[in-house]
Amino acid sequence: MVRTSEYNHHNNMISLEELCMNPTAIKSILPGLILCGILAFSAQALSNLPVLKGHFPVGAVMLAILLGTATRQFIPIGTSMEPGIRFAFKRVLRLGVAGLGFSLTFNDIEAVGFRGLLLDTALITGTYFFALALRRWMDLGKDLPWLIATGTAICGASAVVAANSVLKAKDEEVAFSVATVTLFGTFSMFLFPLIAHLGGIPVPIYGAWAGSSIHEVAQVIGATMNISPKALDFATILKLTRVAFLLPVLIFLEILLIKEGQKLVSNKTSRAEHFPWFVVGFAALVIVNSVHLISPALTVQLQHLDTWLLALSMAALGLETHLGRVLSVGRSAMLAGFWLWIFVSLWGLALSVVLFGHSFHGI
């Protein structure tokens, strides 16, 4: 049985093929795309302000979500904007997620070492088992626990919407999950350094803890930049390595939904349609980046472009966010996000103590 959602409007989505063949389709998405682009550029400009960059590095992606959400609540959005907004949210996002491959190489993965990979693997696996337990114990629906777990375990808001490309959840559940992981990730950015200072957590343990447990790259940087350069470097690499788990995680979600009978998989066409091909693009770009087929200068420019694409798609997500619908998701969902955050923080700290509690020459 094919699973659909009244909020996803799949039948009204403009495909890339339509854009190539139909100039009218291009005109229909331009107004919304321009609005998302303006918000993305604004988010990037704000994120580069010294007061934010030096003391509160939230990043362009997070700011774009906030700007998009504020715009939706306070400024009327015409129906002419909707096709472009939805195109940015559904299609441009996939390019942005694939482009994360420009920020990762095999050398980065090797740099975290066996213990770092074991830490990431154990933390991500534990997060999904805990989400499964919450799904059974609380009235959360089928998709919400996996959305929050993916954002918590992998890379925040980008991972939530990447997971939704497989899950096809309701828009308000996606928006709620993004808001939840952004909120609790920001809490971690402020609380982790305070806990490290009060508890006297050694730099090796703290770098591993922050890199494995905080959601967004910008939040990891904010939580470690004033602790130690070595903690900052190791935590950032460890965090980027978690992004490499996006491919197996989305394949896991695909298999899970197939087993639960929520997707039609009786022929090759349906399997090809549902498979998250953009994640294969991500893996291909990691390989390209690893073998240095692209010059370092161009790679940096492509990383900046990818940040803008992600900011554009996150601005679209914000514009798709109706606070009334998000709040209607309920108290149980908020508690689920809270308990997942607590679990990841404690589990990550415990793993970091066990794996990095003795002398580690890499930090």
TrEMBL record:
Keywords: Cell membrane, Membrane, Transmembrane, Transmembrane helix. The keyword Ribonucleoprotein does not apply. Its main location: membrane. It is found in: Cell membrane. GO terms for cellular component: plasma membrane. It comes from the Bacteria. The chain crosses the membrane at residues 29-49, 56-75, 117-138, 144-167, 174-196, 234-257, 277-295, 338-360. It is a multi-pass membrane protein. Belongs to the UPF0324 family. This is Uncharacterized protein. It comes from Leptospirillum ferriphilum YSK. The lineage of its organism: Bacteria, Pseudomonadati, Nitrospirota, Nitrospiria, Nitrospirales.
